Amino acid sequence: MPADLDPRLLRAFVAVAEELHFTRAAARLYVAQQALSRDVRRLERELGAELFLRSTRQVTLTADGERLLPYARRVLAAQDELLAARTSFGRARPLLVDLNSPGLVTGRRVLHRARELAPDCELMARYESGLTGAAEQILSGRLDVSFGRFAGLDPALRSGLERQPVRYEPMAVILPEAHRLAALPEVPVASLAGETVYAGAGNPRTLEWTDLASRLFEGYGIRLAPPLPLAVGDEEFERIMGKTRYPVLAVVDFPALPRTVRRPLVDPVPLSPVSLVWRRGLVHPGLDALRRAAAEPAEREGWLRLPVEAWIPLEDIFPLPGKIR
């Protein structure tokens, strides 16, 4: 038995033990399957024990693997907590907060209020455009916190994250000024039948948003616009959308684009479920401030109240909010 075990080997073991499938475990850890298998074999050599029974059809834990699993989980949880609580000379490191897009109101309001609640913390804004992309950054340690549709993430991503419901954000459509529906103060969803609407299809960073749009469009005869060149920055996004003239699915607080109008969607009122999302085990005073800041408008302004005529997938309905101290 070695004096020390590399936590990477334990992480590989736990992933395979929970997935009981080497390919899925490798995808969860973002490593090649060959590298994952090599780490598991090395751990078995160092422990002098066989941890898995492997066949062409299945993978199962041995008795030694079953005994190791709870210890490995505790070691990795302690390591994650230690990494999340890194400080320098008693001062918390800057917390990197993804706001998706500079013009979105929900995340910006929460961040502004958190800075008031924790003036000694450095909360740094980032813009990663989509929770799927941001979640991968969070799990790799390059971001700390983001906002978005948690239920739309792959389960492998969700397993390493925690979330707090923030808001049911009403959805809207951005229309060219000359569009047939532009004169309406509100746009019934059914009136978009036959339209092709852009909702980020083909953008790997916004898969959760495109999935929500597909669910909303189903049954209304609304087509999802095909993938477009990935536009980085507001100017490029405006240029691409100006060329295609597609209506754009958005939220009611989405910043206006030149030569367009933004109209809320009604009959029903579709909702975008926004959560505050962070890496599991993260401990930071800035996160505490963000959680308090997110809870205030939920209670005061009804951000977590479902409208009577709402549309939202069942898996996106938040549990009843608890108190954030």
Automatic annotation (TrEMBL):
Q: Which InterPro entries match?
A: LysR_HTH_N, LysR_subst-bd, WH-like_DNA-bd_sf, WH_DNA-bd_sf
What does the UniProt keyword field contain?
Answer: DNA-binding, Transcription, Transcription regulation
Q: Which domain of life is it from?
A: Bacteria
The UniProt entry, under SUPFAM superfamilies, shows: Periplasmic binding protein-like II (SSF53850), Winged helix' DNA-binding domain (SSF46785)
Please give one Pfam family short name.
HTH_1
Name the record gives this protein? LysR family transcriptional regulator
Transcription regulation: is it a keyword of this entry? yes
Residue ranges occupied by any HTH lysR-type domain in the UniProt entry: 5-62
One GO CC annotation, please?
A: protein-DNA complex
Q: Does the keyword Transcription regulation apply?
A: yes
